[in-house]
Write a structure and sequence with these properties.
The structure holds 2 protein chains of 2 kinds. By secondary structure, chain A is mainly alpha-helical. Chain A is about 80% helix and about 0% strand. Chain A has helices at about 1-5, 15-20, 20-55, 60-70, 75-85, 90-115, 115-125, 130-165, 170-180, 185-215. Chain A starts with a helix and ends in an 11-residue tail after the last helix. By secondary structure, chain B is α/β, with parallel strands linked by helices. Chain B starts with a strand and ends with a helix. Classes of the chains: A mainly alpha, B alpha/beta. The complex binds adenosine-5'-triphosphate and magnesium ion.
Chain lengths: ~220, ~375
Amino acid sequence: MSVVAQAAPLIDWAWIVDHLDDMWDRTVEHVVLTGLAVGIGLVVSVALSVVALRFRRTYAPISWTSGVLYTIPSIALFAFLVPFTGLSLLTAEIGLVSYTLLILIRNIVAGIDGVPASVVEAARAMGYTERRLFWEIQLPLAVPVVMAGIRIAAVTVVGLVTVTSLIGQGGYGALILRGLSRNFATEIFVGTFLSIALAVAIDFGLLGVQRLVAPWMRRRPRAA
Amino acid sequence: MADSMIRLEEVIKTFPGADRPAVDGLSLEVGRGEFVTLVGPSGCGKTTTLKMINRIIEPTSGTIWVDGAKATDMPAFELRRSIGYVIQQIGLFPHRTIAQNIATVPELLGWDEARIRRRVAELVELVGLAPEMLDRYPSELSGGQQQRVGVARALAADPPVLLMDEPFGAVDPIVRGRLQDEFLALQRELKKTVVFVTHDIDEAIKMGDRVAILNIGGVLEQYDTPDRILAEPANDFVAGFLGADRGIKRLSLIPLRSVDLPTGAVCDVSDTPETAREAMLAQGWDWVTVLDGERLLGWVWGSELEGVSKVGEATPRPFRVTVDAGATLREALDAIVNTRNNVGVVVEGDAYRGILTLDLLTVELTR
Ligand SMILES: Nc1ncnc2c1ncn2[C@@H]1O[C@H](COP(=O)(O)OP(=O)(O)OP(=O)(O)O)[C@@H](O)[C@H]1O
Ligand SMILES: [Mg+2]
């Protein structure tokens, strides 16, 4: 009877237990989509940052372009890409990666600029070549700022992946969409909850990584 | 000088957009193993000059020779690996341990690990750091300790040339004095060719075999030994820069050991009062210094020797001012004046070396 159906509990625990496998698959999908996007975004951002740092005049246009990409509403971006690359992983990743660039490039450049001039000068005076200076001194010292950027980018992408379900690359978004179409609250709730949980987990995980790769930041300075 | 290690020939540096040169036609020669200090008012081009030697700044014109070759004959990074450099802000690498910081240049030169480890251990001892510092990060060290690491890092690959830009500028005067003394002792062993920048004329005089005094615009006003500069300033600028107390500054160049000290009225504990009285009479003093062999015991009034059979029966009083023979005349003067005395006794360990009077200091001042 329809009266009984309307009185159904808000959360259907039995459904959750039945669909644990499905949730696991969605989790893997979500993590892969996010990891790919942040990973590719980082590689592209480091490359563009190197150009921006070496040729300062390119920083403004690079920053502006990534800023524009960041402001395009995600749904509009995917809609624009679909005619070219279809309902594919490629489409999803192009979109997701383009949202990481602004944050990552800004943080990489700010991180490198934040390395004390005296340290850079000392390195040059010791006989560092410009390339080794970048990879062995400047980039490692920029790690805390860069990692802060990676964390923001990762959390942003986790949220955006729920949108890519619209082009069939869903992760938890697939759960939400299906729940919406079936008017089934449990599934919407589970998709949303897992997405938030994943964002928090990744943020904390990256904080741990940051401590690991920047051990000198961990120890407190001793009094002289 | 025939055997010059660093030679600047008519070097000019004009920074882009500047209306006059920061360094203008500077010629300067530094001998092998010589310690030259570069001193002058702020903005006179000391740092610029130093940085042109290892090509952190390229001269607008002129030539710089390092160890017989033009500095521009090899890639800048190669030249720099053969020149130790201590920058004013220390500039240690915050993400590297002290051991890794010191190992910087050996690593760039591709030394093997065992050799690097041995060298680091050696350097830590050389600059007076505790070995347990090696695994710390720079932020965990005091300013003075960081300065030592900066010096160790510059010395790591045993470069023949050392450039130092106000290396002891960031520490308090007491630590600074100690670092200066230690570095001078180190230099006596290492015999590096050192160019040392400072804006402190006292430091320049204390440290340098020769002192180059620069004026605004990188103009060399005088280049000579500390003693000659203090005795004969080339012009008003130099005289003004040395200050009104340059006579007294000269005293800091003279070690007490090199001065012929009078022994004054002296007697031994085993002497009779008559012997002591003769000694006093010879000097026209009414007191006498009491020794036990070489060892200084103190002094007694002549009147205290009445009725004793041996000088040792009277109790000697300690001198208020004792100065070690290793000190300079300047330090001796300070000690005497600060205690409002007019004599100081000079000792080496606890052995008596003589009496220093203000009269004697005046003689040295006008020499
Ligand atoms: N990179 C630069 N670009 C433009 N001008 C510079 C640059 N570096 C130094 N100058 C100018 O050149 C002059 C000499 O500077 P320099 O740093 O050599 O002085 P200094 O003698 O080391 O002074 P201080 O005792 O204050 O360290 C100054 O007028 C300074 O403003
Ligand atoms: Mg300077």
